[in-house]
Here is the input.
Amino acid sequence: MAILVHPARATRHWIPAGVLRGDRMYHVLSDFLGAEGTRELTAFVVPYGLRPAWIQYPGTYREHFDVRPETGERMLADGARLATNREVGLLLRAKREAMSI
Here is the structure.
């Protein structure tokens, strides 16, 4: 389906990445459910230098990667789709409901 890139603000300092609280960052997530979504997501981020071990909330409906602004913008240029807050909220709710069945 699609890799979604969601603009956000850092809620804390992310010193190794050079991101400070309040700076722009991006969440990267798949709109596929479960293991299929994990595979799609990790296959997409590895060429950008991200390690699969850096995934946040693995195996849950909230599974995603945080990326620096430059990386998120490159991902968008390479075909990832920009997602709104509302779109991400609806997707997460649908994933949560599907995983609880």
